């Protein structure tokens, strides 16, 4: 092997470029039909579409054609459901329910005049479809006949929110999750079991319903009936972690299966996102387990009453969007690793994997990538904080001394940086940066107490945890204390601003993507889903207006003195452009070195390859100009 070339950290040329790290296909929502055909949603830079493939021959066929498929509730998900001869999907622009034959094509509309819809789930006899609908204020679970000849019927209502409608295999019972303001579903939610009445010449209706699990201070999600109809499984954090439980539909007894200090679900930001499922004979439950940001595959044998890890033939460190075939015990998953972009794969009970679809061409060798190392540290009040550390890595280059540190803050507040493929992180580590991805208190993945610890502390706790994490990394000798930078998007951008306000001079550079600067502005027109979220994160308004001002960087922007680059989408509905405009006006007034890049046609997150490439180039140039200069120059 040739000797490595000596170049300063942060200046290494890299084969990891915006062209081969940006513009990945977004793969999600795998689902099987009764014949063993696998369907999924994939999204390019412009739209989402339904694809299908037989795992036996691998031929990929587009089902939805040019239509843009995507559920419109929460942050997305619940885009389509599989019937015997029909695929039911949500047309994203119109939010109407459509049907299409996977063999004949030609989608047809089944509903008219709906507002927001998601999660179509087809009955066992394929004669009806449950789906979640909202007009923006009133949410309900609706039932539609398979051909759409009759208007959809409001079956379940009265709750503020619904998710995970499920059919019992014999079709007379259904289960669902609901929650009410002011809670978020990862805070308090409930699982319900209902019985349908089907009467001649009358609309179907719910004749009974029972509360099965959950309630105040307990989050439940992902109900699943066993194929034999005996069990209703669900996930609850009553023990302090999201664990898998069984409810016996005959005896009414509850039983907790998993007990490891680990999460067996992700927060339900999305509709219909699953992390486990029954085998076809109902004797096993296959499930995913999240520990320290690494998500692995396990199986629980109900007859033997024990769990075991399913060792895969590929080293995947993150698994998502679980689905199991009703024909055989074959799983569909989205799988990735720190050095591997997401793939749609299938897995058999022996752990053998088959690649169905890749999100990227995977032209680069895996030896180019830095691998995440889970770490933890103590903050100022001796609480433990979690994160992932990436050492600078490029097989062609080396450097003397210590590398610069880039602290990357997730878009939170409940999100988690995990050991999946992080293109942004790899772009910088391959150029000689050390990267710390902080999972500050409030992040998911570390149990309920950790997730709930951000309550009324947003804009303070996240700031302290990011600062303590950066200092910990430098104290370990992994990075240069004098060359630290920040990068955050959305809520993470708020954290960047708050750090620069409260600790000027500690970090040399800040990079913000569509970051929040004014909490009071965001209270004016929140989505229904987040209507009371700020009250939990900060405090009730207007009683705690003082806190909202204290947690809004715009009111303390005079304290910012470090160079800052701001990137903003002109059509962002979540953090509108005026947030960026406000902070830029302050920076100009105070003569703070800054860069402002506005992408007029982008929303909350940049999608087009041209803009993604521009973001990377501008960020790298900004860091080179300001992170490596001597202070005072």
Overview of this structure, please?
- With 633 residues, the chain is an alpha+beta fold.
- The protein folds into two domains: 5-11 and 364-626, 3-Layer(aba) Sandwich (Rossmann fold), CATH 3.40.50; 25-358, Neuraminidase.
- Helix content is 14%, strand content 35%.
- It is built from ten helices and 38 strands.
- The protein has an eight-stranded mixed sheet with strand order 30-31-34-33-35-36-37-38, with helices on both faces. The protein has a four-stranded antiparallel sheet with strand order 2-3-4-5, with no helix packed on it.
- Strand 2 (26-32) and strand 3 form a beta hairpin.
- Helix 4 crosses helix 5.
- The chain is globular and about 80 Å long.
- The two termini are 40 Å apart.
- The model has no long low-confidence stretch (mean pLDDT 94).
Distance between the termini: 40 Å
User: Which CATH class of the largest domain is shown?
Assistant: Mainly Beta
Q: Remind me, CATH topology of the largest domain?
A: Neuraminidase
Q: How many beta-strand segments?
A: 38
- Tally the structural domains: 2
Count of helical segments? 10
Average pLDDT over all residues: 94
Radius of gyration over all CA atoms, rounded: 25 Å
Strand arrangement across the biggest beta sheet: 30-31-34-33-35-36-37-38
Structural class per helix/strand content? alpha+beta
Helical content band: 10-25%
Describe the largest sheet.
Answer: 8 strands, mixed
- What portion of residues belong to β-strands? 35-45%
The CATH architecture category of the largest domain equals: 6 Propeller
Low-confidence spans: none
